Amino acid sequence: MNDRNTKERRTVRVSKYLSRHLRHQPERIGLTLDEAGWADIDELLDAAAAHGFPVSRAELEHAVSTNDKKRFAVEGNRIRANQGHTVDVDLGLPAATPPPYLYHGTVAHFMDTIRAVGLRPMTRHDVHLSADRETATRVGARRGRPLVLSVHSAAMHEDGHEFRVSANGVWLTASVPPKYLRLP
After folding, report:
1. Coiled coil located at which positions (predicted)?
2. Domains in the chain, ordered, with CATH?
């Protein structure tokens, strides 16, 4: 295996570690997020090292800057995940007018439930939607053969449903009732 592959695998491991502790389990390493989900980078690096996963500042910056999904934001010496939290945070995202259609990637296994109740956030705070079919296809493919659902977001918005968009372009809403879905 060459050095490039080794570095890429390490970057993926660092990114997954950041996601786990900035989105889901900060307490597992003794990290405290503020109400908006921000953590002090030095505290994060110290906590990671103390829990057996030392990460250099350069590795963290590389993982953040090269992440294709732009999962993280850095401001000064603070870092947070852009969305996808299961811990209680308020990202402070303002309401936004969505495009006419948004998309959601899933797999056939979930279709009966989706037909019955629509899209729900499950363990997350919001339902995640993509602005394009290609992104939704990639999201769905993480769990198997992807199915892409079209969401009539303009109609939802007109009917009073609120949308927000994260720093990395993921559209967020509380739920999507079945009547706004175009199913495959």
Report:
1. none
2. 3-81 (1.10.10.970), 102-182 (3.20.170.30)
